[in-house]
Design a protein that fits this description.
alpha/beta, 16 helices, eight-stranded mixed sheet, six-stranded parallel sheet
Length: about 475
């Protein structure tokens, strides 16, 4: 049980920390690889689809988030092992070049589909036909067999990928990232449920894909349970973290100095898109509970909220600021617009603890990034977060969304400053096992298996009809 009983004192964790070493991450589960001869070739070139969010966009703004980071980092590591990647995404401003080289071996193709500005993610299904047309036009200029495989991200891309893979005669590998049925089962108060059209769309893609990539074993089980996915098609590949960028570097004190934060303050950080699903309001409510109990802490706490409104949060872009004022804690909260990856790493280093009270999280990339920077994580025990965070070793996992439970852990961090360093050290060590090279290598294995099975199935069909 993750919510700690009152009589379980934090000193237990302090003393135990030195004895428990971070475990290796769960073994990757990739069906269909065993028994494939070493001669089976990897794809030379993959068409990657990211309809609703561009890998060139700043994470933390609009619909840009962990998935953007995932696609960019995965593509870079795939290119490094000689798998070229072409990423198709919707053009969101006029005058963009049709293709941009993101890095050697990676091309981002901008597809015209619908108006550039002001199109919400919910309105994108109506543009899928136009997007598919753009993808087909780009392909028409190439010789047959130019792409070996399609890898689609999120259900909108899955629909385009389904058609493209069939048209090109190649396998479709799909990553859900989030699922409507899972999100609807854990909605934040006042949040909008995902529409039935998305559920139907996801069900169709699960049936059509040759392989499904899940971030965690739990997500793999959800695909089977909620969408009747064939377990033999589901591969578990943990996302990675850029360990060169997210690292302890010159430490907490130097990062605080750069960001203008007091050296000895308790700094619980929220970093991410500001929307009900991510529950940044819960951190504010927890801080209000903490300051009610410990008024003296007010002079020694700073609560940075780093990110921009997104999704249903766009309806009330000032909602969090108003909540901070209503709770009487506006003086300790610092709202920061989304920042680039380098500066985000500094915010992680500067924080005492990253707080992730999400209602649903397919993996929680931010949790691994913060830990890689040497910072413990206080997170909701949902989705992939129990894989990302080692409870009571690299942070704390909490069942439910009661601000009082979060306040209690924050109080422990305030009372035992050494917890930050001890857990931070364990966190940095734990994160080392989540490098992107491992994720890219495992993804390449999924591609190889998908291509092998696809060729075998089509040979069987041809011989059957012959």
């Amino acid at each position: 049980m993750h919510v700690r009983k009152e009589d379980r004192h934090v000193s237990q964790y302090v003393s135990r920390l030195g004895r428990r070493s971070p475990a290796a991450p769960p073994r990757l589960r990739i069906p269909g690889i065993s028994g494939i001869p070493g001669a089976q070739r990897r794809p030379r070139r993959v068409a990657m689809l990211s309809v609703h969010t561009s890998p060139l966009h700043q994470p933390g703004t609009g619909d840009a988030g962990g998935m953007n980071v995932y696609i960019v980092e995965l593509a870079k590591r795939l290119a490094a092992i000689n798998i070229e990647v072409e990423i198709f995404t919707r053009a969101t401003t006029g005058g963009l070049p049709p293709a941009v080289e993101l890095a050697p071996g990676i091309l981002v193709r901008h597809v015209d589909a619908g108006p550039y500005e002001g199109l919400a993610k919910e309105e994108l299904p109506a543009q899928l036909c136009a997007f598919t047309h753009g993808v087909m036009q780009a392909w028409a200029g190439h010789r047959p067999g130019y792409y070996d495989l399609v890898h689609s991200h999120y259900w909108l891309s899955g629909h385009v990928g389904w058609l493209a893979a069939e048209r090109w005669g190649v396998p479709l590998v799909h990553a859900m990232h989030t699922m409507a049925k899972v999100k609807n089962a854990a909605l934040a108060t006042g949040d909008t449920p995902e529409p039935a059209a998305r559920v139907i769309g996801e069900t169709q893609i699960v049936r059509a894909a040759d392989r499904l990539i899940a971030n965690t074993s739990e997500e793999a089980d959800e695909l089977v349970r909620h969408y009747e996915a064939d377990p033999g098609k589901v591969a578990v590949v943990h996302p990675g973290v850029n360990l060169e960028r997210f690292r302890p570097a010159d430490g907490r004190a130097a990062a605080r100095h750069r960001l203008g934060l007091p050296q000895d303050a308790l700094v619980p950080l929220f970093a991410g898109r500001i929307q009900p699903l991510k529950a940044p309001d819960l951190l504010l409510r927890a801080v209000a509970v903490l300051l009610d109990e410990r008024p003296a802490l007010r002079s020694n706490i700073v609560v940075p909220i780093v990110g921009g409104p997104s999704g249903s949060g766009l309806a009330k872009p000032e909602g969090l600021q108003k909540l901070a004022a209503k709770l009487g804690i506006a003086d300790v909260v610092r709202f920061q617009p989304p920042v680039g990856q380098e500066q985000l790493a500094d915010w992680f280093r500067a924080a005492s603890v990253l707080v992730m009270p999400s209602y649903s999280e397919s993996f929680g990339l931010v949790a691994i990034e913060a830990q890689a920077a040497g910072t413990p994580v206080l997170a909701a025990s949902v989705g992939g977060l129990p894989v990302a965070v080692r409870d009571e070793v690299t942070g704390f996992l909490i069942s439910g969304h009661d601000p009082a439970h979060y306040a209690r852990v924050l109080r422990d961090f305030a009372d035992h400053p050494q917890l930050v360093d001890r857990m931070g050290e364990a966190a940095a060590s734990h994160a080392q096992s989540f490098g992107w090279d491992t994720a890219a290598s495992a993804t390449a294995d999924v591609y190889t298996a998908a291509m092998h099975d696809f060729r075998t199935a089509h040979r069987h069909v041809r011989s059957h009809h012959g």
